[in-house]
Specification:
With 506 residues, this protein is an alpha/beta fold. Helix content is 42%, strand content 20%. The structure holds 3-methyl-2-oxobutanoic acid and zinc ion (ZN).
Length: 506
């Protein structure tokens, strides 16, 4: 069976989503998980865009060995040289060169003629080819470009050495049948097309990214560019999990396969959501909380009698554990370890000990510990590993008559204990003000959301906070059964990420 190459751009286009900034260690963590997911290509970043992005791509290229590691570059010599510098240590490096092709972009943005664009495309592929054999080229805004001009560009860049030609629907404008015809036209009209893999890169502005990608695959494209949870610029990119599971579930229709280890999908989705701060909507296909839960009595009856009555996929194939075991106060280390393994975590002894004591602490407050509680708890433990400032104590007083007041004690990076107090419009405001007095980094809080991980009054509350400093957004998360403590943890987490980013930027 023919295979579709899965090109994951979560760390590049996905990270371009407003507010989704990741630090270097977080990017490496996601890249490790993408390797476990067995994607074929990881687009690790856009090295010329910032020193942080360059370092992240370089680190991923050094540490991740199985997938191809790709770096993005505009059709400029400096971009290409920088992209190569970032991926040269990779076992299998790729440079991805892009340049706008549509008349709209040429006229209003680049102010260049079609001939000039054609020449630049060819020349920059030749330049990249001096570094590595594996070159991808994208004529940006292809779906709004005259097809004959796309054919010309593709022929020229393949002659210059491009081994993959990617057709982007940059603004998410295409309709499946029309985009499919463009792909078909490419196979029919580009004489040397058999020397390159045809790829597609679809955005979701009209909610059609997955449909356009699948239509292209049906018409011969053999690489799909996509992101975990469909995150990305504006409305996002085609969602990896939806593409992969459509190809797998409808093998009868596509007669194709992918390399993806589907049982890693759920874990990858949770990790990306956790680190980017983008929650997955409950009705999201494949990875949403309701994707496999049946509410209607008729459906429940059918599923109990025979799952295929209403379930087209077995939740275990995407790594959602079918668990009947509920943990609680009396559960021991062994049961906890087994549950972690079923959820796909393999913690070292030190991390396990910390997670287990957090579990015991939670079990004292909450009767039944669900899988989502455990995921939240492990995520909280992992967040605290690389902390700059660490919360030692929080105390608040509030009420309808009182003036909201917070006292906070933090441990500074040098081990010093810092304490201060502040008044606020509410307890969360007071806590944030007290923390600000101690950390002293100017920032503006732009988003604050609280949600409970499970039902019930004893549920863990997860708080997401976004702050802005020098026009960059940093996301912080915190979880606790006390939402004021969760808010303080989320705020300190966002500040820690801000401080870490400033340190990398020098
Ligand atoms: O959407 C787009 O056109 C892109 C290119 C860089 C491939 O992201
Ligand atoms: Zn894109």
């Amino acid at each position: 069976m023919e295979r579709v190459i899965i090109f994951d751009t979560t760390l590049r286009d996905g990270e371009q989503a407003a507010g989704g900034t990741l630090n270097i260690q977080e990017k490496l963590g996601i890249a490790r998980q993408l390797e476990k997911l067995s994607v074929d290509v990881i687009e690790a970043g856009f090295p010329i865009s910032s020193p942080g992005d360059f370092e992240a791509v370089r680190l991923i290229a050094k540490e991740i060995h199985t997938p191809i590691i790709c770096a993005l570059a505009r059709a400029h010599p400096d971009d290409i040289d920088r992209a190569w510098e970032a991926v040269e240590k990779a076992k299998r490096p790729r440079i991805h060169v892009f340049l706008s092709a549509s008349d709209i972009h040429l006229l209003y943005q680049l102010k260049k003629s079609r001939e000039e664009i054609l020449g630049m495309s060819r020349d920059m592929v030749v330049r990249a080819k001096k570094y590595t054999d594996d070159i991808e080229f994208s004529p940006m805004d292809a779906s709004r470009t005259e097809p004959e001009y796309i054919y010309q560009i593709l022929e020229a860049v393949i002659d210059a050495g491009a081994t993959t030609v990617n057709i982007p629907d940059t603004v998410g404008y295409a309709i499946p049948d029309e985009f499919g015809s463009l792909i078909e036209g490419i196979f029919q009209n580009v004489p040397n097309i058999n020397r390159a893999v045809v790829s597609v890169h679809c955005h979701n502005d009209l909610g059609l990214a997955v449909a356009n990608s699948l239509e292209s695959v049906k018409r011969g494209a053999r690489q799909v560019e996509c992101t975990i949870n469909g995150i990305g610029e504006r409305a996002g990119n085609a969602s990896l999990e939806e593409i992969v599971m459509a190809i797998r579930t409808r093998k009868d229709f596509f007669n194709l396969t992918t390399n993806v280890e589907t049982r890693q999908i759920y874990k990858t989705s949770r990790l990306v959501s956790e680190l980017t701060g983008f929650t997955v909507q409950p009705n999201k296909a494949i990875v949403g909380a309701n994707a496999f839960s049946h509410e209607s009595g008729i459906h429940q009856d059918g599923v109990i009698k025979m799952p295929i009555t209403y379930e087209i996929m077995d939740p275990r194939t995407v790594g959602i554990p079918a668990s009947s075991l509920v943990l609680g106060k009396l559960s021991g280390r062994h049961a906890f370890r087994e549950r972690l393994a079923e959820l796909g975590y393999s913690l070292n002894e030190e991390d396990f000990d910390r997670a287990f004591s957090a579990f015991k602490e939670l079990a004292d407050k909450k009767k039944e510990i669900t899988d989502r509680d455990i995921e939240s708890l492990v995520a909280e433990e992992q967040r605290t590993v690389s902390e700059v400032y660490h919360i030692d104590r929080i105390q608040v007083s509030c009420g309808d008559r009182g003036i909201p007041t917070a006292a906070v004690r933090l441990i500074a990076p040098d081990g010093q204990v810092l304490a201060d107090a502040a008044l606020g419009t509410g307890p969360v405001d007071a806590v944030c003000k007290a923390i600000n007095r101690l950390v002293g980094v100017p920032n503006v809080l732009t988003e604050f959301t609280v949600k409970s991980v499970t039902e019930g009054i004893d549920a863990i509350g997860e708080v997401l906070i976004r702050i802005e400093s020098e026009s960059i957004t940093y996301t912080g998360r915190g979880a606790d059964t006390d939402i004021i403590v969760a808010s303080a943890k989320a705020y300190v987490n966002a500040l820690n990420r801000l401080l870490a980013a400033k340190k990398v930027a020098g």
